[in-house]
Structure formats: structure tokens, C-alpha cells
């Protein structure tokens, strides 16, 4: 504590200075925690006030309270939960498929030269195609069924996970691998104890990129062609000029993204506790 | 000290060279004798790194190999450990050139090479491979960790240790399987002077307790003189000087006889300038 370092020089002034500083530092932990929320809360407040006084037309930008009310209504009818669940399932399924394949290719190409020479060039070429540009083609192939959305999400998630897994395995310290060999580890032990833990920080980077792309792709896919889900809810609302519902959908997307990010952070802190860069401060 | 370090014979040291009987600790392995016959190594058909080397290291001897960079000393170490196959010639352990293994030969590298994602105790247990149950391995690892004075750090991550502490964990990992041969590839090169002296004393003590055969590759002639029974100077893929050091242990730093020996070896190394 900085307080204990304050040397009283004697007399009132030093004591008073110490007391003042103590008062500030007593506040500090709470202040610190609240500080990040200062800006968003003031923006919301300003938004609400300007909407209430008619500075901004609520036809185009509903007040925060209206959005909250729309959320309440949608929650009451159950419409919100159905759509949320549908979108969540799509995101999860697509992510698991794409991420799983990406991880598998990343591992096999990182561990085997043969596998790498067979597939890496092809994958790098396909990577340069923006996956959302495939939407017309995907609609032709799958219609506007679940298949189309899963395919796009999986494709989008695949590359960041693949590239980062591959990079992670490549960058495992060769000295540690040599140590493992010298100490008699067989291939499986070497993989589980040295290679995979060494690649994990990089795999997590891929995971976070993948999650971002997952939401982005899902929103676009659902907005363009769907008959359920959050994006569909937003598009329906636009048809009927329900701006509050449109904004509600956007806010929910943002919240979901934040939740996914927090979950990954928590996972990183657990799995990478050994790494000073990830340790909880 | 009046007698020359080279002729000084102390029973404690002299007894070690032939195999002294050991009664305690049935699990403990004894050292191993290493014999090299006409050992040669070249990489990809290039200039040979080792040229027909003959060497016999008796059981339990502490040998230091000094030489300039690129003289082949690290390659020699790797051949003795079985990490590389010789181009010609034979490496025999206790007269057997089939080299049976499994924890009998261990190496300590210049870097600690600890797994950053494993706790200190588990890092030491790496040295045991898959011998016995996990609980037994951890128990054994904890004992050896105590021997290097780090029992309190068993649950720490390696990232929280100092450089010297990490190298001690690496030493514990090398010794936990009670190896018959410990190869030390400049293990103290990256440590500060005081830590280095402490580590040398620790290595010496553990070697005296466990009686493994030790081969130390080093740039530091004073380190070789402080620790070794025998010093080999390598030059150009062969051994140019083979000195026995009979000074009693523990050796006192700054001893004039040892200093003279150090000077002689340094002269040999400097004369070898190409």
C-alpha cells in the first residue's frame, strides 16, 4: 500500500495529506470497476434524453426505454426466446462443425509433412475467397434451409481455427520437443504433454477470431434468407417499421458476442494459468 | 597445499574410480562405464566432426570435456547419449554396445527446458516417464526436489522461478530416475557467477551421493577444474589432452595447484588456434 510509505514529517499538514490520500484510495477500487461503464451509461442517458425531447426522431432511432419495452413484449410472447434459441443452435452447430474440421486439419498439417503438402496449398487458396460471397451459390445449393446457414458459419469459422492451430503447432519450442524425446516420451505422450499445451495459446486466438466470424456470418445469413432466428426477427420488424425491434436484435447480437468473448476469456484463464500473460490480475 | 594437483592422491577420490561396493539403497543404479572405439561422425558426408576417437570412462568417473566451439564436444555427448548414431565405430556401455536404455542415461541442457504448463513437481516427474503409479512418481519427484532444496516450490509454475531455481528443477528431473550416466551440456553457462558456484557444489554433492558417471561439457576451464576427476581437451574432432585431477574434494577456489592446471589447459586451448 502506498499509504504505509507516507512518512509523517510531523505536524498537521502531513497528517491531513495522508488522510486525504487515504480517502481517495478507499474509493479507488470501486471507481476502477465502474470506470469502464461510465461512457456507455452516459451515451444511453444522452440518447434517452434527446429522444424524450424530440431531438432525434423515434421513427428512425427509438429511445432505449422503447427498445427495452420491445424486448419485454417479445420475451412475454416467447417469440424472442424461440428466435434466440434457433440462432444459438445454428451458431453452435456451425461453429462445432467448422471449428472441429479446422482443428483437425490444423493438427494433422502441423504434425505431418505429407498431410501438409497435400492440403495446405489448397486450403490457402480457398481461404482467399470471402466466404460471404458464396451466399448466392449456397442459396442455390441448399435453398434457405438450415444447411445454408450451417455451411456458411462452418466455412467462416474453419479458417481462423485452422491457421492458428497450424501456427501454434509450428511454433512449439523445438528444444522442449527434443527434451521430451530424450526423456523417452513416445509420440502420444509428446503430443499431449508438449505439443498440444504449447499450441494452446495460439489455438485460443483462433477460437476468439472464429467466434467473431461466427456471429457475423450468422447475422448476414439470417438477414438475407431465413424464416426464424434473430436476423429473421429483425427483417420482419423492418417490414412493419418496428424500429425498436430492429435495434433490439442488434443489441442482442452485441450482448451474445460479449458473452462468447467472456466465456473464452474465462476458459483461457483456466487452461493457460501457467502463462504469466493470461494470469488473472 | 604443497603437492602438485596432478600427483595428489586422496583416498576418497582414488576409491571412486574402481567400483566401490554400495550397500544402501537397492533401487539406486550404479554408474556405467563408457567405452568408445574408433568413433567417427560426419554429417551428410561433410567434414568429419569426430575422427576415430578412442576413450574409456570408468564407472562413476566425473569427466569434463573442454574445447572451442565446434570442436565436436557436443556431438560426442550426443553420441554417448545415443541421440545420434555414429558414422563409424562403437559406443559401448559396460562393454555392451547394444545400448539398452530407459532412464540409465540423462542429460541436462544449457537451458532448463521445463514444460511451462506443468507444475514444478510434474516437471521433475517427467524424468520418470511411466515407471510405476502416478502417486509413486510424484512421491519420488518430491524427494528429489527436496534434495535440490526446492521442496517448497513443488506447486509453482516454472515461470515464477529464478534462472538458478529452474536449472535446479532440471537437475532434479535429470536425477529422479537415478541415472547411471549424467551428461551435462554446459548447464551452468547462463547463470550468474554466485549461482553457478552454488550449482557446482550441488552437482558435486549429488554425484558423490549417487555415484553416477558424469560427463560435463563446458567452455569454462575453471568449472572443469573444480568438478572433474579427469579433463579432456578436444581439438579438431579428437582428444588432444587427457589430464587426471587428483585434488581432494571439496576443492577450494583459488588453490594455486588448480590454478596452475587451469593455466595449462587454457594454454593448450589457445595454442590450438587454427
UniProtKB/TrEMBL annotation, chain A:
<feature type="transmembrane region" description="Helical">
    <location>
        <begin position="128"/>
        <end position="144"/>
    </location>
</feature>
<dbReference type="InterPro" id="IPR035906">
    <property type="entry name" value="MetI-like_sf"/>
</dbReference>
<comment type="function">
    <text>Probably part of an ABC transporter complex. Probably responsible for the translocation of the substrate across the membrane.</text>
</comment>
<dbReference type="Pfam" id="PF00528">
    <property type="entry name" value="BPD_transp_1"/>
</dbReference>
<feature type="transmembrane region" description="Helical">
    <location>
        <begin position="150"/>
        <end position="169"/>
    </location>
</feature>
<keyword id="KW-0813">Transport</keyword>
<keyword id="KW-1133">Transmembrane helix</keyword>
<feature type="transmembrane region" description="Helical">
    <location>
        <begin position="88"/>
        <end position="107"/>
    </location>
</feature>
<keyword id="KW-1003">Cell membrane</keyword>
<feature type="transmembrane region" description="Helical">
    <location>
        <begin position="240"/>
        <end position="260"/>
    </location>
</feature>
<keyword id="KW-0472">Membrane</keyword>
<feature type="domain" description="ABC transmembrane type-1">
    <location>
        <begin position="80"/>
        <end position="264"/>
    </location>
</feature>
<dbReference type="InterPro" id="IPR000515">
    <property type="entry name" value="MetI-like"/>
</dbReference>
<dbReference type="GO" id="GO:0042918">
    <property type="term" value="P:alkanesulfonate transmembrane transport"/>
</dbReference>
<feature type="transmembrane region" description="Helical">
    <location>
        <begin position="34"/>
        <end position="56"/>
    </location>
</feature>
<feature type="transmembrane region" description="Helical">
    <location>
        <begin position="190"/>
        <end position="207"/>
    </location>
</feature>
<comment type="similarity">
    <text>Belongs to the binding-protein-dependent transport system permease family.</text>
</comment>
<feature type="transmembrane region" description="Helical">
    <location>
        <begin position="213"/>
        <end position="233"/>
    </location>
</feature>
<dbReference type="GO" id="GO:0005886">
    <property type="term" value="C:plasma membrane"/>
</dbReference>
<protein>
    <submittedName>
        <fullName>ABC transporter permease subunit</fullName>
    </submittedName>
</protein>
<keyword id="KW-0812">Transmembrane</keyword>
From TrEMBL, chain B:
<dbReference type="InterPro" id="IPR017871">
    <property type="entry name" value="ABC_transporter-like_CS"/>
</dbReference>
<feature type="region of interest" description="Disordered">
    <location>
        <begin position="1"/>
        <end position="27"/>
    </location>
</feature>
<comment type="similarity">
    <text>Belongs to the ABC transporter superfamily.</text>
</comment>
<dbReference type="InterPro" id="IPR003439">
    <property type="entry name" value="ABC_transporter-like_ATP-bd"/>
</dbReference>
<dbReference type="InterPro" id="IPR027417">
    <property type="entry name" value="P-loop_NTPase"/>
</dbReference>
<keyword id="KW-0813">Transport</keyword>
<dbReference type="InterPro" id="IPR050166">
    <property type="entry name" value="ABC_transporter_ATP-bind"/>
</dbReference>
<dbReference type="GO" id="GO:0016887">
    <property type="term" value="F:ATP hydrolysis activity"/>
</dbReference>
<dbReference type="GO" id="GO:0005524">
    <property type="term" value="F:ATP binding"/>
</dbReference>
<keyword id="KW-0472">Membrane</keyword>
<feature type="compositionally biased region" description="Low complexity">
    <location>
        <begin position="16"/>
        <end position="27"/>
    </location>
</feature>
<keyword id="KW-1278">Translocase</keyword>
<keyword id="KW-0067">ATP-binding</keyword>
<protein>
    <submittedName>
        <fullName>ATP-binding cassette domain-containing protein</fullName>
    </submittedName>
</protein>
<keyword id="KW-1003">Cell membrane</keyword>
<keyword id="KW-0547">Nucleotide-binding</keyword>
<feature type="domain" description="ABC transporter">
    <location>
        <begin position="34"/>
        <end position="261"/>
    </location>
</feature>
<dbReference type="Pfam" id="PF00005">
    <property type="entry name" value="ABC_tran"/>
</dbReference>
<dbReference type="InterPro" id="IPR003593">
    <property type="entry name" value="AAA+_ATPase"/>
</dbReference>
Amino acid at each position: 500500500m502506498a499509504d504505509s510509505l507516507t512518512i509523517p514529517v510531523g505536524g498537521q499538514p502531513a497528517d491531513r495529506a495522508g488522510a486525504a490520500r487515504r480517502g481517495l484510495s478507499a474509493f479507488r477500487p470501486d471507481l476502477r470497476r465502474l470506470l469502464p461503464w461510465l461512457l456507455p451509461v452516459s451515451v444511453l442517458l444522452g440518447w434517452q434524453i434527446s429522444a424524450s425531447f424530440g431531438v432525434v426522431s423515434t421513427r428512425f432511432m427509438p429511445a432505449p426505454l422503447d427498445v427495452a419495452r420491445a424486448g419485454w413484449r417479445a420475451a412475454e410472447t416467447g417469440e424472442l426466446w424461440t428466435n434466440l434459441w434457433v440462432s444459438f443452435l445454428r451458431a453452435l452447430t456451425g461453429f462445432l462443425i467448422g471449428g472441429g474440421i479446422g482443428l483437425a486439419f490444423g493438427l494433422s498439417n502441423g504434425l505431418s509433412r505429407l498431410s501438409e503438402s497435400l492440403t495446405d496449398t489448397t486450403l490457402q487458396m480457398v481461404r482467399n475467397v470471402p466466404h460471404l460471397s458464396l451466399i448466392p451459390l449456397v442459396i442455390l445449393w441448399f435453398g434457405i434451409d438450415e444447411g445454408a446457414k450451417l455451411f456458411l458459419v462452418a466455412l467462416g469459422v474453419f479458417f481462423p481455427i485452422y491457421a492458428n492451430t497450424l501456427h501454434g503447432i509450428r511454433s512449439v519450442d523445438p528444444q522442449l520437443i527434443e527434451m521430451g524425446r530424450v526423456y523417452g516420451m513416445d509420440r502420444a505422450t509428446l503430443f499431449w504433454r508438449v505439443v498440444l499445451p504449447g499450441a494452446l495459446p495460439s489455438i485460443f486466438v483462433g477460437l476468439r477470431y472464429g467466434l467473431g466470424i461466427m456471429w457475423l456470418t450468422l447475422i448476414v445469413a439470417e438477414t438475407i434468407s431465413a424464416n426464424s432466428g434473430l436476423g429473421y426477427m429483425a427483417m420482419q420488424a423492418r417490414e412493419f417499421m418496428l424500429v425498436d425491434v430492429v435495434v433490439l436484435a442488434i443489441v442482442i447480437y452485441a450482448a451474445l458476442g460479449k458473452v462468447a468473448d467472456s466465456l473464452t476469456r474465462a476458459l483461457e484463464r483456466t487452461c493457460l494459468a501457467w502463462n504469466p500473460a493470461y494470469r488473472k490480475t | 597445499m604443497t603437492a602438485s594437483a596432478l600427483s595428489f592422491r586422496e583416498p576418497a577420490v582414488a576409491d571412486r574410480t574402481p567400483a566401490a561396493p554400495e550397500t544402501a539403497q537397492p533401487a539406486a543404479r550404479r554408474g556405467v562405464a563408457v567405452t568408445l572405439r574408433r568413433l567417427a561422425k560426419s554429417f551428410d558426408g561433410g567434414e568429419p566432426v569426430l575422427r576415430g576417437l578412442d576413450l574409456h570412462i570408468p564407472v562413476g568417473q566425473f569427466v569434463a570435456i573442454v574445447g572451442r566451439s565446434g570442436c565436436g564436444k557436443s556431438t560426442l555427448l550426443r553420441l554417448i547419449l545415443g541421440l545420434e548414431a555414429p558414422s563409424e565405430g562403437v559406443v559401448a556401455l559396460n562393454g555392451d554396445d547394444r545400448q539398452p536404455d530407459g532412464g540409465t542415461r540423462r542429460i541436462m541442457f544449457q537451458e532448463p527446458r521445463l514444460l511451462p504448463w506443468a507444475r514444478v513437481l510434474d516437471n521433475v516427474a517427467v524424468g520418470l516417464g511411466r515407471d510405476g503409479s502416478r502417486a509413486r512418481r510424484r512421491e519420488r519427484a518430491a524427494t528429489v526436489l527436496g534434495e535440490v532444496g526446492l521442496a517448497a516450490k513443488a506447486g509453482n509454475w516454472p515461470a515464477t522461478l529464478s534462472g538458478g531455481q529452474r536449472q535446479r528443477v532440471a537437475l532434479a528431473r535429470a536425477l529422479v530416475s537415478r541415472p547411471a550416466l549424467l551428461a551435462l551440456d554446459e548447464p551452468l553457462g547462463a547463470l550468474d557467477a554466485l549461482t553457478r558456484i552454488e550449482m557446482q557444489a550441488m552437482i558435486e554433492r549429488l554425484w558423490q551421493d549417487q555415484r553416477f558417471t558424469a560427463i560435463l561439457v563446458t567452455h569454462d576451464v575453471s568449472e572443469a577444474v573444480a568438478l572433474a576427476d579427469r579433463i579432456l581437451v578436444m581439438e579438431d574432432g579428437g582428444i588432444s589432452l587427457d589430464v587426471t585431477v587428483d585434488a581432494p574434494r571439496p576443492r577450494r577456489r583459488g588453490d594455486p595447484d588448480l590454478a596452475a592446471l587451469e593455466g595449462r589447459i587454457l594454454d593448450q586451448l589457445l595454442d590450438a588456434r587454427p
